[in-house]
Amino acid sequence: MGNSGMFWALLGAATAAMLAGMGSSIGVGKAGQAAAGVCSEDPTKFSKVLIMQLLPGTQGIYGLLIAFITLSQTGILGGAGSEISLVKGLLYFAACLPMGLVGLSSGKRQGEAAVASIGLVAKKPDQFGKAMIFPAMVETYAILALLISILAIFGVGSLAI
């Protein structure tokens, strides 16, 4: 069966990075479309809408972080990759899923909230601080998923199986 545990661990790392990155790219893309529309009417609002557009990008960063931690825990990142059991590989895969799945969903939803906030800033630039809160609230769930994945990955790493 070779090193099928390592396959599952790598698949987990890739899944976290891919899904969270997809969520971020969708969210940032939606917000970018709205931001471009606002800037076409009033270029002075560029910096405010740019900040709103960047918010959904954090999920991709979190997914990448989970991938790096998993690769480091399995020894691949340091070049000392060794055989790991199938069970441990599956556990690494499962540990990466919260960030991947929540990152995909929350990146998309944060983009939608950012679009609405960009609309608010377009009409009432003085409400920028309040507008930031709406997409930032979605971020809470991405951070919770990040924490769960980190704790689970380090937990799997400490298991002697």
Structural notes for this entry:
There is one protein chain. With 161 residues, the protein is mostly helical. The chain contains five helices and no strands.
Largest sheet: none
Strand content: under 5%
User: Approximately how much helix is present in the residues?
Assistant: over 70%
Name the poorly predicted regions. none
The Cα radius of gyration reads: 19 Å
How far from one another are the termini?
17 Å
Task: Walk me through the topology.
Blueprint: H1 4-41, H2 46-54, H3 58-73, H4 86-123, H5 128-157
Helix pairs in contact: 1-2, 1-3, 1-4, 2-4, 3-4, 3-5, 4-5
Notable traits:
single chain, 161 residues, mainly alpha
Short description:
This protein is mainly α.
